[in-house]
Amino acid sequence: MDQLWIDLAAVLAAAAPLVIAAMGETLSERAGVINLSLDGTMLLAAMTGFAVALTTGNLLLGFAAAALVGAAIAAVLGLFSLTLGQSQTAVGFVLALLCTDLSSFLGAPFVRVPGPAVPFTPIPALADVPVLGTLFFRHDPVIYASFLIIPATAYLLYGTRLGLIVRALGERPAAVYARGIDVIRWRYAMLITGGALVGIAGAAFSLDLKQGWSYRHTFGAGWIVLAIVIFGGWRPWRVALGCYLFAVLEIVATRSQSALPNFPTQIIQVAPFVLMIFVLALVNLASSPAAMRRAATLPQIWQRPLLGAINRLRATAPAALGQPFERP
Fold it and tell me: CATH for 2-313?
């Protein structure tokens, strides 16, 4: 039983960077802006954070530099898509490729170089509480921050006037503009805030979860975050659940390598990504009107549980997501 709690604590730790990045992307997309640069942003921020922390000997400066990188890339995306009216998808994808190559080129001197890492910081007294201490209070500050950012994001979106504005930006920006709110400026604010969180998540990889820097250190994590945000229906708690689900899949795959020594390791390594795509496909299927119509034709004994499952899986994107806004 003790091993079970240790494994669950490992899941919470492994999901921490994903949670931070996913909350940032949730804010951005709730405001109506898709940031497809996530994968490249996380790579460049991870490299920058590690390089700055290594050269200065200061972890906080490393995280601050990573946040600035994420915010700067988001600002570039905003310049081209929000100000100049270019496609958010196209600009984000180009930025993802550019930042990926930049991280490899600029990070070459730091590959496999030992460097600083976030220290293990158990919380006194609470760390000794049975079960809960192992799960929640024997981690480091990055993981504690990932716990706090989930309710903070949920409260911001659903418990504050600011959250009401952000949600309206993604649903009916024209109505927001009619009330005297600058849609473009507010979208910039949410996009840059989300970008900064994505940058911090990148540094969380290189300075905490996967300490150090190597070629394509976080490769694929950004795309997974984008998929998790869709799986989570743009709702913070469900998005966080998706992050933890993916962390479970990763840890199970890692453990399977030693349990199945003759099984191809390449298949085990990509299995979490394949399963996440499968789950995302189920969410998209549940969100289609055809699924509801098909379920309604089934016998009553099957209809009720199936409709319940469809309602739980359904994810509706913000109505104005990815759409440019032009002032009337």
Answer: 1.10.3470
